[in-house]
Amino acid sequence: MEYQGDGWKDSSGAANAAYLNVKTRPGFEEDPVCGIEVKKSELKADDKGATYYFCMDSCRQRFLKSPDSFLAPTPQQKSM
Question: Domain segments of the chain: what residues?
Fold first, then answer.
């Protein structure tokens, strides 16, 4: 690790390895509220055609009050 002006970085470039782009293991999902990896279960909610899973009911309740605040905006395609 070395400091490169804008933070500590791995000088070997290993932090950019393709295997690091995998967010969750097969059979698991990411809780959109707290980011914890959770198994698909009955503790879920649907929003705009997608199903989201939660680690506990309090995360689910927070999500149901304001789903858009926990979901990343979808990238917009640039026009040329």
Answer: 24-71
